[in-house]
Design goal:
Largest sheet: none
Oligomer: single chain
Structural class: mainly alpha
Number of helices: 5
Order of helices and strands: HHHHH
Radius of gyration: 16 Å
Number of strands: 0
Number of domains: 1
Distance between the termini: 33 Å
Shape: globular
Length: 112
Amino acid sequence: MLLFAALMLLFTVNALAQDKSKDGAKAVTTYMKEQLTLNDGQYTKVYDVNLTFLKKVADNNKKLKGPERVKKLRVLEEERDTKLKSVLSEDQFKNYVGNKAANRKKIAEYYQ
């Protein structure tokens, strides 16, 4: 019975973390849609990139601490930027880079 309760708690926590990543990805992507004037196809692709990024960030935050955590976050951001560059136009990407601080702030709202 105790094992069952522990497993249920684990699945519930995991489901909540996934929902948080989905909510965060939707909020950030909607924000980016306004900033970058994304079309529907771009929105879907940017959402997928953001969702993958946020899931990896959440996993990173659970596993790593201190300088290792920051170093891995930089790698994840570079990976995200590379994927976004292939989805966005040149002007949109420049605008995205110029608004990175605002995007980070939006993401941080979901992970405090």
